[in-house]
Structure formats: structure tokens, C-alpha cells
């Protein structure tokens, strides 16, 4: 067994056989913690060291099996031991199961482990219970595991639950496919069938491959790839394809790579700079004239381009000869910023000195919303737990949207508490301080970073008093008091384990409450009340409506009974069982059920069939008493047997069934057919 494998890193290979000596050389021993533990603890493998053995033993306990008695089962035990450690740590790092990237790797590991649990005879969910052991064994060295315990267990439980719902059905389908392959004399599963298992039952292709390899089969991987590509192309076509101004992106790709733009808008909203590039929607040009759409690139800009969830600035660019309305600002390849819009007056030329002026109102409102997302992030962690991590955001001048990791809908009390905390920090007037520092120093401040986000050597750390510290490249208010107010509009789920909050700040909050006030006043006016007495008025009207509805139902039932008249003469006997099949006009389904109950009681024992034409359609019910059921009567089958006569269908239980139809002219035929169908049922 390999414990130590020294690798002396000395040269850089350029890929063409040329070696350059590295200025910083190093030695990689290849001896990880587990390998070292094998030596120190004097055991035979990593699965025998203390932390791994605890997990291994827990698996054996759950599966009621013994390690090292069956080599096949040992493989499953070791695989689950390895995978539960990996998945626990991955989830604690913020990775969630998905169908792409690292999320797909996580999903594959969970589902592979779940499947091997089945091979060991485990029928119930077990991944979360195993993860508890992983956390208990490793939390001293990795305290974040304990902090995020509930979140990790939730993710594993939900993912295993999803797979549980399809694994048995999927394995059954795979068994059928294996039988078909044997019958056809082939050992290769088609790409289409492998894709069906992936797409319909959530079987990662390597899981299908593993199952088949155990039985001597293979997969047409190329065919599977074709099916995957076809699905991606269909999904791509289904999406609305857009890019800057609807133009071909090559118009930007043809710009000199040496041209760049420096952003100077953190502390100013107006700046003079030289125009370096102009484009129309299709080509590079030397000038743009009145009415033309195009893109302007300058050396330095105060305009913030859309990135990091913050929407772009808008505004105007003016030169000595022209004026340009900036409708969007885009970050382009190679560090360039494109100001996209329309010339509103005169001409703009390459080389002009331009005055760039950002819409200060929109920028100010955007800053309020952006700063509020930082306060919201911290408040959510305080209320829900440290497992909460940002999964995405969007801020513009109107509202903010914040996506975060959490597995349950927030309660009203939780939302109220989060909103209260954010407003408290706004009211506290916290100074918002931004510092540029290297990434290591930033980490030492405790600044929250987005998991998986790529950061350069230099980062911006945004600190709001002692409450919030985050890495962020966006624009912010100078003091939280500028935000004025914060109001949560909604909270809902957007994906497994991901929730979304939408909220307002500043003037948006005041406009929102003004709208609510206006709606209350209009509602009060309609109900001849005041906003203060509106609830009381609604309660009174609701009680009145209930009383009127009850009275109406009573009157309808009485009218239906009177319209039906005395129907005892319509009762016939079918093989000794009484049958009352008749019709009444303009009665809804509820009314028919009430009539049916009354007639059934009057009949004593037997079968009641009622039909009614209402608004050009047919309502019908059938009821059978205990005595009739004992003789073989079945209301559901009776309804099915006659509903076709009125162009309808339906069914139900043996003792009561209902149906609808669209041909009232067929009601007499239904009534006549009821006796024939019932006769066929009776013993």
C-alpha cells in the first residue's frame, strides 16, 4: 500500500516539450491525513482508522450486516463510507444537488450511495443518520459541520427522498431493458435507453453503467451524449436568445484587445473621458449620428456595468457636438465597458472628449437596495442559522431580490424578525466603509464571500458598522441611514434548498404603503365603511352571506323536491331490487345529492339514479343502499354504463357516484338504460 509518494515539482512544461525551471520549487509528499492515520494507528486500510471505522460500523448497524464476511457487501460498505463523508463536506461548503457542475457530482455521489444501501438491504432513508456520525467524528476539526448540521441533514434527506420515489421504478425498467438486451443477443444498452433512465428516473449515467457492468453489460456512451446534446439544443432554442442590442457579438469581438475601460464610479457620478470605440449594431464606426443606435467605449467611466447581481447604470454622454442616451451598460470581454443606447442630438466621434453623467436618482436607489441585501444576508443568518448563504441576487432602482440556501418556507414570525433586524440597522446609521485589500487579509476580517465565486488578488471589502462584512464589487450607500426603510414583499422557493426574498427600500417602501392605503380606502368606499371599520364590516358581511347562502340552499332543495313531485310511481323492481331512475330540471350536483339522500331514505332499500339538465349540460348521480350492494349493485359502474347516452363520463364508489354530460336530449335514454345496466350487475 502506498503511503508516501514524493513528487519534486521543478519544471514548467509548455506543452511542446520545452521545460523551464520554476522560480519556486516544491515537494508534494502525497501523504494525506488518512494515510498518516493508517500508519500511526497501525491498521490495514483507511477504512479501519478511527473516524472512518465509526462510519463503517454505523452502516453495518443500520444494514444489519457484518464487515469482512461478504466481499460483495464490503464493497458497498466502503463505498457508502467514502461517499457520505464527501457529500457531508460538500454540502457544508455550500454545494447543493443539481443537474450540472459540482451540484451534479454531489447528486451522483448521494444516489450512488443510496443505491448501494439498497444492495445491503436498507429500505428506509439512511444518509442523514450516517451524516450525523460524520459530523460527530469531524466537528472538532471542522466546526462548520456542527454549525450547518440541520441544513446538511435536510439536503441529504430531501435528495434521498427524491431518489427513493423513482429508484424502484427505475430499477424495474432497467431490468426490463436487460431482459430485452438478452433476448436481442446484445450486451450494450442503447444511448436512448440510458438517457431515459437519466431523464425520467434520475439515474446518473455512471450509476446505470455501474449496475450494468456488474452483470456484464455496457452502455452506448456516444449515443447517450447525442441525446444529452439534443436536449440541450432544444432547451437552448426554447429560451429567448438575446445579446447586446440584439446584435451579433462579433461586433465587440473585433475591437482591439488592448483597449480597456477603467471604472471610476465608486465616488463620482460624472466624469470626463476620451471616446475610444464606437459601434453600430453590426460594425465598428468612426462616428454615430442623430437617431443611430450604438455602443460607446471610453477610457474611464463612472457608469456601473451589470455584474454581481447589480443592474446597470443609465444616463447621458455628451460631447461638444452631440448627446447620447445610455440605456444599458455592459461589461465586455477584455475589461471593456460598453455604453449602449441612442444618439439624441448631433454627432459623437472617436477621439471626442465626452462628459459621462450617471442618472443619480436611479444609482442612489440601486445603492440603497444593494446595501440592504448585505443587511438582509446577515439578518437571515441570525434568524435562520449560519447555513444560510447567498445563492444569487438582483438589485436595481426599484427593488431587490435575494436568493439564499434554506430548506423550509420562512414563517411569518421569522420574516417579521428579519425585517425588524434590517430596519434596526438602518435606524442605527451604520457607516458603510469600503476597503481594497488582498484576498488573504480580506479573509482575516471574516468577510463573507460567495462560494465558488472567483476573486482576484485584490478585493473590495464592504463593512457596515460591526454588523456586516462582505466581499463585494458593487456600489453602496455611505451610511445605512440613507436606506430609510426596508419592507419584505414576498418569500418563496425557487429550487430545492433555495429560497427567494423580494423587498423594497427607501421611496419604494413609502410608495408601497401609499398604494396599500389607497386600496384600503377604495375597498372601504365600496363597502360603505372607513379603513378603521373595514375588518368589522367584512366580518359582518361574511356572516350575512353565509346565512343567505344557507337560506338559498334550503330554498333550492325545497324547489327541487317540489319540481320532482311524487315519484313513487316511477319505482320499478329489477330482479327484486327497487330502482328509482328519474330526472328533474335545473338542479346542480349538490342539490341532486341532497335529493338522492332523501329518496334513498324514502325508498328504504334499492338504487336511486337522478339526472338534471342545467345550463345546457347534464348532472347525474347514482346511489345504492347496503342491501342493494349485497345483491351486486355498484353505483360507480352504473354511472359509467349510462353516462355515454348524454355524451359524458364519470364514476365513483359502489355506494355513490356522479358524472357530467353535455347532451340533455339523451336523458330519457339514460333513464331507460339504468334498468338494463343494473340488471346485469345483480346476482
Architecture overview:
The chain is α+β, with helices and mostly antiparallel strands and 683 residues long. Helices cover 44% and strands 24% of the residues. It is built from 20 helices and 27 strands. α7 (149-184) runs antiparallel to α8. 33% of the residues are buried.
Percent strand equals: 15-25%
Number of strands: 27
Unreliable residue stretches: 239-249
Largest sheet: 6 strands, antiparallel, barrel
Determine the number of helices (DSSP H or I, runs of at least 4 residues): 20
Structural shape: extended
Quaternary structure state of the chains depicted:
single chain
What's the overall average pLDDT, rounded?
89
Class from secondary-structure proportions: alpha+beta
What portion of residues is helical? Answer: 40-55%
Main β-sheet, spatial strand arrangement: 6-9-13-12-11-14
Instruction: Give the radius of gyration.
Output: 36 Å
For the terminal residues, how far apart are their CA atoms? 78 Å
Amino acid at each position: 500500500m502506498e503511503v508516501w509518494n514524493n513528487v519534486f515539482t521543478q519544471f514548467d512544461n509548455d506543452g511542446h516539450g520545452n521545460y523551464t525551471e520554476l522560480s519556486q520549487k516544491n515537494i508534494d509528499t502525497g501523504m494525506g491525513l488518512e494515510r498518516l492515520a493508517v500508519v500511526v494507528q497501525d491498521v490495514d486500510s483507511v477504512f479501519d482508522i478511527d473516524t472512518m471505522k465509526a462510519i463503517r460500523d454505523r452502516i453495518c448497524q443500520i444494514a444489519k450486516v457484518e464487515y469482512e464476511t461478504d466481499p460483495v457487501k464490503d464493497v458497498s460498505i466502503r463505498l457508502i463510507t467514502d461517499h457520505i463523508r464527501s457529500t457531508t463536506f460538500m454540502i457544508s461548503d455550500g454545494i447543493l444537488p443539481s443537474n450540472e457542475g459540482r451540484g451534479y457530482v454531489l447528486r451522483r455521489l448521494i444516489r450512488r450511495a443510496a443505491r448501494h444501501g439498497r444492495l445491503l438491504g436498507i429500505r428506509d432513508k439512511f444518509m442523514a443518520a450516517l451524516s450525523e456520525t460524520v459530523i460527530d467524528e469531524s466537528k472538532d476539526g471542522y466546526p462548520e459541520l456542527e454549525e450547518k448540521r440541520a441544513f446538511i441533514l435536510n439536503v441529504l434527506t430531501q435528495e434521498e427522498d427524491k431518489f427513493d420515489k423513482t429508484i424502484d421504478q427505475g430499477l424495474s425498467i432497467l431490468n426490463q431493458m436487460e431482459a430485452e438486451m438478452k433476448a436481442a443477443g446484445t450486451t450494450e444498452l442503447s444511448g436512448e435507453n440510458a438517457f431515459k433512465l437519466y431523464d425520467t428516473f434520475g439515474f446518473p449515467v455512471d450509476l446505470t453503467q455501474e449496475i450494468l457492468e456488474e452483470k456484464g453489460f455496457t452502455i452506448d456512451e456516444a449515443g447517450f451524449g447525442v441525446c444529452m446534446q439534443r436536449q440541450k439544443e432544444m432547451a437552448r432554442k426554447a429560451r429567448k436568445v438575446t445579446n447586446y442590442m440584439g446584435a451579433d457579438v462579433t461586433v465587440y469581438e473585433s475591437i482591439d484587445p488592448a483597449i480597456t475601460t477603467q471604472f471610476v464610479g465608486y465616488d463620482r457620478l460624472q466624469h470626463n473621458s476620451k471616446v475610444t470605440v464606437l459601434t453600430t449594431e453590426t460594425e465598428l464606426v468612426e462616428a454615430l449620428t442623430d437617431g443611430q443606435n450604438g455602443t460607446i467605449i471610453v477610457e474611464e467611466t463612472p457608469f456601473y456595468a451589470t455584474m454581481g447581481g447589480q443592474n446597470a447604470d443609465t444616463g447621458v454622454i455628451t460631447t461638444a457636438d452631440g448627446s447620447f442616451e445610455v440605456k444599458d451598460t455592459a461589461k465586455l470581454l477584455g475589461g471593456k465597458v460598453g455604453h449602449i443606447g441612442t444618439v439624441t442630438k448631433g454627432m459623437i466621434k472617436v477621439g471626442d472628449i465626452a462628459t459621462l453623467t450617471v442618472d443619480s436618482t436611479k444609482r442612489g436607489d440601486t445603492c440603497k437596495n444593494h446595501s440592504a441585501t448585505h443587511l438582509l444576508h446577515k439578518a437571515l443568518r441570525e434568524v435562520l442559522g449560519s447555513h444560510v448563504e447567498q445563492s444569487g441576487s438582483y438589485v436595481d432602482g426599484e427593488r431587490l431580490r435575494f436568493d439564499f440556501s434554506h430548506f423550509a418556507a420562512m414563517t411569518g414570525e421569522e420574516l417579521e424578525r428579519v425585517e425588524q433586524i434590517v430596519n434596526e440597522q438602518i435606524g442605527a446609521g451604520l457607516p458603510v466603509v469600503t476597503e481594497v485589500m488582498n484576498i488573504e487579509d480580506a479573509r482575516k476580517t471574516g468577510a463573507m464571500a460567495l462560494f465558488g465565486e472567483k476573486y482576484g488578488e485584490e478585493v473590495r471589502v464592504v463593512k457596515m458598522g460591526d454588523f456586516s462584512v462582505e466581499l463585494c464589487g458593487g456600489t453602496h450607500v455611505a451610511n445605512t441611514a440613507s436606506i430609510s426603510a426596508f419592507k419584505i414583499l414576498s418569500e418563496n422557493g425557487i429550487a430545492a434548498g433555495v429560497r427567494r426574498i423580494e423587498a423594497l427600500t427607501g421611496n419604494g417602501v413609502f410608495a408601497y404603503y401609499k398604494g396599500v392605503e389607497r386600496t384600503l380606502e377604495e375597498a372601504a368606499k365600496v363597502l360603505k365603511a372607513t379603513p378603521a371599520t373595514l375588518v368589522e364590516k367584512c366580518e359582518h358581511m361574511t356572516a350575512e352571506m353565509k346565512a343567505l347562502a344557507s337560506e338559498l340552499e334550503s330554498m333550492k332543495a325545497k324547489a327541487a323536491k317540489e319540481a320532482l313531485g311524487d315519484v313513487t310511481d316511477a319505482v320499478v323492481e329489477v330482479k327484486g331490487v327497487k330502482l328509482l331512475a328519474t330526472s328533474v330540471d335545473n338542479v346542480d350536483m349538490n342539490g341532486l345529492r341532497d335529493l338522492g339522500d332523501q329518496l334513498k331514505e324514502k325508498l328504504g332499500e334499492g338504487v336511486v339514479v337522478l339526472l338534471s339538465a342545467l345550463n345546457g349540460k347534464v348532472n347525474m348521480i347514482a346511489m345504492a343502499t347496503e342491501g342493494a350492494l349485497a345483491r351486486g349493485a355498484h353505483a360507480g359502474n352504473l354511472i359509467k354504463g349510462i353516462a355515454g347516452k348524454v355524451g359524458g363520463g364519470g364514476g365513483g364508489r359502489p355506494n355513490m357516484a356522479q358524472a357530467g354530460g353535455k347532451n340533455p336530449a339523451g336523458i330519457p335514454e339514460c333513464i331507460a338504460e339504468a334498468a338494463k345496466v343494473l340488471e346485469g350487475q345483480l346476482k
